[in-house]
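Case study 2.
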Amino acid sequence: MESPRALAAQLYELHREAGKDEPYLERWPGDHELFGVLTFAQDHANRLTGERYRKAAMLRMQLAEWLRLAADPFQLSAIDDARASGTSWKEMALALRYLDRFGEPNPGSAMNLRKRLYVAVKGRPGDRRQPQVAHLIDRRAMEARITEAQFIAAGEARYAELDAVARALLKHHEAGEVPADPDDDGFWWEQLAEAVDDRRSASERANLLVYVRGVAREARAYAKRTGQPPAATEQAASALDAAAELVDLDAGG
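Prediction:
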């Protein structure tokens, strides 16, 4: 399954392709600000149409699911810390607005939340203490397998091209021919450099698509912000063009 930053990058690409030089794109929060990305994509959803609108909705769905699941361990830890420091289940239910039909806090609901979170965070598919939680774990596992299979198939279909483009991009970047934002953390370039020589399995090879997309988008975005060409040589520009073509092919399905 693709990383949340990769999902965010795909959302940006859909808006960039549709919006071109629209001023609203300047308010993009950055791939690492995931809640901000989701808010931005929701607020500007209607700027997209047709297939882009559908794909953006699917990406928003996946990103929202990732954020929701990512919050589970934090809520579980917070509940346990609150209990350890003397908070009652009744007080916790009131804070969470778990009320019964008379408007009174329902401690049992808060206790059940803690049980659900514990199984969701630390449980296994075979854990059947709570049927709804077991079903959730099974569904997550099934969705992850389907998504990974689709992702691997797409990556394998164009691995040879991606590998060649990735190596060319790294060569030109290391030579200083593809400028990078000095204030950026270099995440995508570092990931690409680590990944390009370590592609043993089909799953690992498929991830190369994510990193090529990331560096291509970052290079174009930095060039746009600074008003300079994205590449300093004709060869580097050709490598970026090839990467952009592969990104566009992926975005277009």
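The first helix runs from residue 4 to 19.
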